[in-house]
Design goal:
Length: 308
């Protein structure tokens, strides 16, 4: 799908309309949210032949519209754009003393979709109304790459010169306070120029201990965000392969803190084998608890010395 603001786009291998039945009936709250999204200009009424299943999910006391774009993604050509790895980002910020973490406000929904492609995002509600997205949305396979490319283009020469971005999260890093104030001013000016907004309540400014992508970054080290480690420690005992995948996915993100992670997780990964019955044997709870304890009490990892 073409993005108006920059020369990024999302193409389809077929123009044959993808249409699926709607998900279980929505409630009054769902219709209210649809009206709110329409009022905000994020969605509008549609007569498209496309139809994607829609669901409203409550997260942290707030309702979110979630769409199952799997069928649409199957005919979407993958955008050729590389998102940096977390290792790349964490390595580059070493040697810095001051940090700011900037969070984009409803990041994807700030980017207009090309008019010719909006009908492909259509979804229906049980009362017969059909809507389509006017703006980029979660679930489309190229949304992260599209936003990453936009953010990198906006940062321009600041990228790798005190600023890095991972999709909708930006981290600024400098050695001195004066450098940091100057950098903040440049970043704000560039994003304001194209009307992209930050979420002040989720931003961190001029700090020596900065939460970023599930980690806490300081001038000397990288720590696991305590909120994340506590959340993993409270993960309930898995009852099927889906829950095992979810647990291992969370833990794999922090595997650098767990010595011999693959070996220690083997009793759990064995449960993911095809045609293997899900049996919670004596080894599996030991591995489950062992990994949770390792994440709850991780070692401190030092940032690499840029001058070494």
């Amino acid at each position: 799908m073409k993005i108006i603001t920059v020369n990024n786009y999302e193409d389809f291998s077929s123009d044959f309309p993808v249409s699926q039945d709607i998900l279980p009936p929505l409630t009054e709250k769902d219709f209210n949210l649809s009206a709110d999204l329409e009022k905000a200009g994020i969605i509008s009424k549609s007569n498209s032949q496309y139809n994607t299943p829609a669901l409203f999910v409550k997260q942290k006391e707030k309702w979110h519209l979630v769409l199952d774009f799997r069928k649409l993604n199957e005919i979407t050509l993958t955008q050729d754009f590389v998102i940096p790895t977390l290792d790349d980002i964490l390595h580059e910020i070493s040697g810095s003393n001051y940090f700011s973490a900037l969070d984009m406000k409803s990041a994807f929904n700030q980017i207009p979709l090309h008019f010719a492609d909006r009908h492909k995002t259509a979804f229906s509600t049980p009362d017969g109304d059909k809507y389509e997205f006017n703006r980029l949305c979660f679930g489309l396979k190229n949304s992260p790459k599209a936003f990453q490319s936009i953010a990198q283009e906006v940062l321009g020469d600041l990228l790798h010169n005190g600023a890095l971005v991972y999709i909708a999260d930006i981290i600024l890093f400098t050695k001195t306070i004066d450098e940091h104030f100057e950098l903040l001013g440049k970043v704000f000016e560039r994003f304001e120029r194209i009307h992209l907004k930050f979420n002040p309540s989720k931003c961190q400014f001029l700090t020596k201990s900065c939460k970023f992508l599930g980690f806490v970054v300081t001038p000397e080290s990288i720590l696991i965000d305590k909120d994340k480690s506590v959340s993993i420690n409270e993960f309930p005992v898995p009852t099927d392969q889906k829950h095992i995948k979810s647990f291992l996915g969370c833990c794999n993100f922090y595997r650098r803190y767990i010595k011999n992670f693959a070996k220690r997780a083997l009793p759990l990964t064995n449960l993911l084998r095809k045609d293997t019955p899900f049996e919670w044997t004596s080894e599996t709870p030991e591995a489950f608890d062992d990994i949770k304890k390792a994440i709850l009490n991780p070692p401190v990892l030092a940032l690499p010395d840029p001058d070494a």
